C-alpha cells in the first residue's frame, strides 16, 4: 500500500499514572464521535499476548516494544489509524516507530513523579499491578521482592525524553478535559498536514 493511503499512528507516552491511558481513551472517543475509524492498542494489554507471563525486564521490554511497533506498522499499512498507549521509556523505542511508520507523531504526557505516584496509588488491579510505585519504592528501600514486579519506570528506570516529540503536555496539574483539549487541538493541526 502506498504511503499516501497508509494509516497514521499517534503514540501517547509517559510514566505510569501520568494520564496517558485516560488521554488515549479520550482521543479515541472524540475521533469516533467525528466518524473517524481508529484502533487503540494498549501496550499493557498487548504485552500479555506477546509474553503471557511478563517479567518486565529491560530485555523483555525491548522485544515487546519491537513487536508492538511492528503490529501497529502492519495496521497502518492496511490503511488503519492507530492510537498507541504505552510508556515507551526509551527514546530508541519511539525512534524505531518513526522509522517504521511514515505518518507518526508522539505526544509525551509529562507528569511530576510525586503526582504520578499519587494517581497510581488509587488504581485498582487491572492491566497493571496495583500499588506499582509503592512496591517499587519499598523494594528499593528494603530489598523486599514482590512477585511479578519488574523494573518500574520513574523508580528503577528513567524515562528518556525525545526532543522530536511533536507535543509535550505537562499533565501534572491539568484536568483530563484540559489535557484532551490540548491533544485534540494538536491532532487537528497534525492531521491536516500529514
Automatic annotation (TrEMBL):
<feature type="domain" description="APS kinase">
    <location>
        <begin position="7"/>
        <end position="170"/>
    </location>
</feature>
<dbReference type="Pfam" id="PF01583">
    <property type="entry name" value="APS_kinase"/>
</dbReference>
<dbReference type="InterPro" id="IPR059117">
    <property type="entry name" value="APS_kinase_dom"/>
</dbReference>
<dbReference type="InterPro" id="IPR027417">
    <property type="entry name" value="P-loop_NTPase"/>
</dbReference>
<dbReference type="InterPro" id="IPR050512">
    <property type="entry name" value="Sulf_AdTrans/APS_kinase"/>
</dbReference>
<keyword id="KW-0418">Kinase</keyword>
<keyword id="KW-0808">Transferase</keyword>
<protein>
    <submittedName>
        <fullName>Adenylyl-sulfate kinase</fullName>
    </submittedName>
</protein>
<dbReference type="GO" id="GO:0016301">
    <property type="term" value="F:kinase activity"/>
</dbReference>
